Amino acid sequence: MQSPAIQGYPTQCPVCSSHYNHSEETEVIFENRGESVIHVSCQKCKSFFLFSLRMNPMGLAGIGMLTDLNREEAIFFLNKRRRISNEEILSVYVELKNEKVGVNNLFS
């Protein structure tokens, strides 16, 4: 599926600045109720980029990120995703607060 021409949509690779050939390097890998996830592959440097678009009451919102997931891996994880409950978020917050763990210590 070819990607739409949308203002703010990536036109060049954030790693090597090569311009994307959208018909060959871009694919919509998820669509559901106003949300789309687009996977972009750079042919030059072989980097990958995920771009999420969502319609909301204020208009179209988008966010992108570099990833090491190829198209098939991204599709796999998108199909496995689930919403995180408020209770899970609160549980992590309480645990971190009780342990007095700072963000800088989380990944060391």
Key terms:
single chain, 108 residues, alpha+beta, four-stranded antiparallel beta sheet, 3 helices, 4 strands, 30% strand, disordered N terminus
Characterization of the model:
The chain is α+β, with helices and mostly antiparallel strands and 108 residues long. The protein has one domain (22-102). 26% of the residues lie in helices and 30% in strands. The protein contains 3 helices and 4 strands, in the order H-E-E-E-E-H-H. Strand 3 (48-56) and strand 4 form a beta hairpin. The termini are far apart. Mean pLDDT is 80; it is low at 1-7.
Strand proportion, as a percent range, falls in 25-35%
Number of domains: 1
Instruction: Give the fraction of residues assigned to helices.
Output: 25-40%
How would the global form be characterised? extended
Beta strand count: 4
Structural class: alpha+beta
Strand order of the largest sheet: 1-2-3-4
H/E element sequence = HEEEEHH
Rg calculated over all Cα atoms: 17 Å
Entry summary:
The protein has 108 residues and is an alpha+beta fold.
List strands and helices in order, with pairings.
Layout: H1 22-25, E1 26-32, E2 35-41, E3 48-56, E4 59-67, H2 71-80, H3 86-99
